[in-house]
Design a protein that fits this description.
The complex is a heterodimer of chains A (366) and B (289). In chain A, 12% of the residues lie in helices and 19% in strands. Chain A is of the alpha+beta class and 366 residues long. Chain A has a domain at 3-55 and 308-364. In chain A, the strands form 2 sheets. Chain A has a 9-stranded antiparallel beta sheet with strand order 6-5-4-1-11-10-9-8-7, with no helix packed on it. In chain A, strands 2-3 form a two-stranded antiparallel sheet. Chain B is an alpha+beta fold and 289 residues long. Helices cover 17% and strands 21% of the residues of chain B. A 9-stranded mixed barrel of chain B has the order 1-2-3-4-5-6-7-8-9. The chains are: A alpha+beta (366), B alpha+beta (289). At the A-B interface, α3, β5 and α4 of A face β2, β4 and α6 of B.
Chain lengths: 366, 289
């Protein structure tokens, strides 16, 4: 189970103070637990630049926002394929990119997440706000998901990754370490983690599956375009999110991935997503993968997510308590009192007895 | 469960060409395919290994029960696949197996809970799997739960006091044209089939994959577990290469479907009655959204 990440998430969530009604996005109301003078609704949150001021931005690894003008001519296999085989790391994205691919404001001007020294920031490369361009109805649904995550009252309120669902494409590529291997006719992408299953991508130009077959990982078909591997994924079910922040899509979604080696150790990856039912336009994200040494033997450690998993039930019980106590909110990453980004190392979000404050996990609710 | 049988029947139609060859039931004491037949030599992969690649599937009753059994609701009758007929349980373990069988509708870790089936049950599930051969390991990807096994040609089993796995740890080597896979580091959570046949964490499995024709592979498995069985025992089944052109593995994520059915009120999650330590149930009425 994802214990390590769940603890991190709980610390982050615990740092969000109590008392923010879910309906407050439009209508100012009195907040439980705050002084009567506190401003209401999301308006109290400062704009992105102010809220994130003073938080250092430091990338652990190079993060390209576009394909560089100069890239190498990659080595070729005997069959003439550009040779991408080996072990690659997406570790730079395995914490934050996997959690939220966005940074910046939602349409109401509320900060969703800030860049800090553990966070690459938005993975989106063609959105000035760093946000996924949801249409208004779809954006409302996303905010409903964020409220459900904050105080879940039923299992399906939890994010899809905690529920051990497949991540889908391109979310699966934030798993941390993966291996690319070739077998005749297929490019095989094997990632760590059970929610990022092995992708066996046919390269023979076959047609996609019939439209009535929908899969969480979709149906991927690949081809070479010069030295770029282009993978089209269709037949997506509507069950997956792009991250843990309610970033949903419909069955109409299509993804085009482009993989290009920049140099022997660097791969530029770009995924373009389109879903006319949900987005106002297509959008793209980018990641930079780093080659691991070959003697770093790649092993898929078994990740038994679903087996014996009970943390969802715990979270639901805690969420039910929270809601009954009038505690509601959105799962976001800003201290709602100060409008500042939440630093996981900060200790001040503990109450008198040393328990993390707020939030919908039962041991913390009296 | 009965869905599996319907699936299996549908799949059987797709291997009609090879069923004629392979319908002789594999019963204990019978020799493998006819003496006098020319032994098949598979082609080689680019890396020089016997080529086992492709999409394969088991068709047969061992999914439901490894031993001889009568038909019952949703379960076809079957010749057993165990050498010697019966699995050689120790007396106390046999009682446990019989109890598992009685409780199977709610106790089967894979059918009831959608937990990973372990080895060799993963091979016997009525879903295709794909063998991918790489220089340092063979990877088998199964449509059932997207299970992915790396069969390493190097290295040793890890320390079982530290690492146990639902699917075990696999170390492989070639003996002529046979891929021999030594599997250890199991936990004690899985069953061998839908009839309650089980093991402890002392389980040790050796699989042997031998391609005997372009479309048939024999799968012979030796199982030992001194805590449960009085001696090692073997089972043997044919595996069939799926014939459809452009076939690809799809998905079967039963736990996802279970969540969705439970959310609609059509089903109860199989663990929901089990106690949840540390967090008392919430008796109040949660806020409606």
């Amino acid at each position: 189970m994802r214990n390590q990440y769940r603890q991190w998430t709980m610390r982050i969530l615990a740092a969000i103070p109590l008392a923010f009604t879910a309906a407050a996005q439009q209508t100012p109301t009195q907040q439980v637990g705050q002084s009567p003078a506190a401003p209401s609704g999301f308006g109290q949150i400062q704009k992105a630049q102010d809220a994130c001021k003073g938080v250092a931005v430091r990338h652990r690894k190079q993060h390209l926002h576009a394909l560089p003008a100069n890239v190498i001519e990659p080595p070729r296999t005997a069959e003439g394929w550009p040779d991408f085989q080996g072990t690659w790391s997406s570790a730079a994205y395995a914490l934050n990119g996997y959690h939220s691919i966005e940074v910046g404001n939602d349409p109401s001007g509320n900060v969703i997440q800030c860049e800090d020294d553990s966070n690459i920031g938005s993975l989106l490369i063609d959105s000035p706000t760093g946000m996924i361009p949801y249409n208004p109805e779809a954006q409302k649904k996303k905010m409903e998901y964020l409220a459900a995550i904050y105080a879940p009252s039923k299992r399906m309120d939890m994010d899809t990754d905690t529920l051990c669902f497949f991540r889908g494409v391109p979310h699966d590529m934030t798993a941390g370490i993966f291996r690319i291997g070739y077998v005749p006719g297929f490019v095989v992408v094997m990632s760590q983690g059970v929610t990022s299953p092995t992708r066996i991508v046919p390269m023979d130009g076959r047609r996609h599956l019939p439209d009535s077959i929908k899969l969480m990982m979709g149906d991927s078909v690949g081809r070479w375009q010069g030295n770029t591997l282009v993978v089209e994924t269709t037949n997506n079910s509507g069950d997956t999110w792009f991250d843990k922040h309610g970033t949903w899509h419909s069955e109409e979604m299509r993804v085009t991935e482009q993989w290009t080696m920049v140099d022997q150790k660097t791969m530029y990856y770009q995924a373009t997503v389109d879903d006319p039912k949900v987005f106002t336009r297509p959008w793209s994200l980018a990641m930079t993968f780093n080659k691991m040494p070959e003697n770093n033997a790649f092993v898929t450690r078994e990740d038994a997510c679903h087996e014996g998993e009970r943390s969802v039930d715990r979270s639901v019980r805690a969420g039910q308590r929270a809601l009954a106590a009038g505690i509601k909110g959105y799962h976001i990453h800003v201290n709602l009192e100060t409008g500042k980004a939440i630093n996981p190392e900060e200790q001040k979000y503990l109450d008198e007895s040393g328990q993390p404050r707020g939030l919908s996990y039962a041991p913390m609710i009296k | 469960m009965k869905g599996y049988f319907e699936v299996a029947v549908g799949m059987a139609a797709c291997v009609a060409a090879v069923v004629v060859v392979a319908t002789r039931p594999v019963v204990a004491a019978q020799a493998p395919p006819a003496a006098g037949a020319v032994p098949y030599t598979p082609s080689r992969t680019a890396g020089g290994q016997p080529d086992l690649s492709g999409i394969w599937q088991y068709i047969g009753p061992a999914t439901f029960d490894l031993e001889d059994h009568s038909p019952s609701m949703g379960v076809p009758a079957g010749y057993g696949v165990v050498d010697g007929g019966r699995i050689p349980y120790l007396p106390a373990a046999l009682k446990q197996r019989d109890k598992n069988f009685q409780d199977r509708a709610t106790a089967d870790p894979t059918e009831a809970f959608c937990y990973r089936p372990g080895v060799p049950r993963i091979t016997l599930m009525p879903f295709p799997f794909q063998i991918l051969q790489f220089p340092n390991y063979t990877e088998i990807v199964y449509e059932f739960l997207g299970v992915n096994r790396q069969l390493f040609f190097k290295g040793q089993h890890p320390d079982p006091d530290i690492d146990t796995f639902w699917m075990g740890d696999s170390r492989a080597h070639w003996e002529g044209k046979t891929l021999v896979v030594d599997v250890a580091n199991f936990n004690d959570e899985t069953w061998f089939d839908g009839a309650g046949n089980f093991h402890s964490d002392a389980l040790h499995v050796v699989e042997r994959y031998t391609r005997t024709s372009p479309d048939i592979m024999t799968y012979e498995v030796t199982i030992e577990d001194p805590k449960v069985f009085s001696r090692p025992w073997k089972m043997r089944v044919p595996l069939y290469r799926r014939q459809e052109p452009n076939l690809r593995l799809l998905e079967y994520q039963c736990h996802t479907y279970m969540e969705e059915e439970a959310a609609k009120g059509h089903a109860k999650l199989p663990w929901s009655h089990l106690p949840l330590e540390g967090v008392p149930p919430f008796e109040g009425v949660p806020e409606k959204k």
